Structure to design on (100 residues):
């Protein structure tokens, strides 16, 4: 089980990313349209004004049940060992166990 503080921090980053999404998106479109380098620097300064944790690259997927940050499957939102346990218990419809 992941520490509660880390999970809370990740939720805070998600909220910040949603809040500043439009503010980050509009200057990125403007940079490609501007021909002068000095104007590009000004727009780049606007991009740096939102907080760092509002960047979408800082978000990290976590396991839905345990909060584990690594080895999570996007399709299920679960970490590998939890996914395996749920498949063996027949709790995930359509997922089959591998046997060789």
């Amino acid at each position: 089980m992941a520490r509660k503080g880390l999970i809370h921090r990740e939720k805070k980053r998600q909220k910040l990313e949603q809040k500043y999404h439009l503010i980050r998106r509009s200057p990125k479109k403007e940079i490609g349209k501007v021909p002068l380098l000095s104007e590009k620097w000004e727009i780049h300064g606007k991009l740096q004004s939102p907080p760092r944790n509002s960047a979408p690259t800082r978000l990290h997927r976590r396991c839905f049940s345990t909060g584990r940050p690594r080895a999570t499957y996007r399709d299920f939102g679960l970490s590998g060992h939890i996914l395996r346990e749920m498949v063996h218990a027949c709790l995930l419809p359509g997922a089959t166990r591998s046997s060789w």
